Amino acid sequence: MKPDYAGRRRLLLGILGVGLIALLWSTANRQIIQRDYLEIQGKHRYLREIPIPAHRGEISDRHGEPLAISSSMFSVWVDPRHLPNSPKFTASLASLIETPLAELQTLLTKNKDKGFVYVKKNLSPDRGDQVKALFERYRLGSAGLEQEYRRYYPSGEVTAHIIGITNAEDRGQEGVEKTQDAVLAGKPGLRIVMQDGQRRVVEEVGLVRPPEPGRPLTLSIDRRLQFLAYLELKRAVIENKAVGATAVILDAQTSEILAMVNQPSFNPNDRAKLTPAAMRNRAIID
Question: Which of 36, 55, 66, 284 is the most buried (most CB within 10 A)?
Answer without folding.
Answer: 55
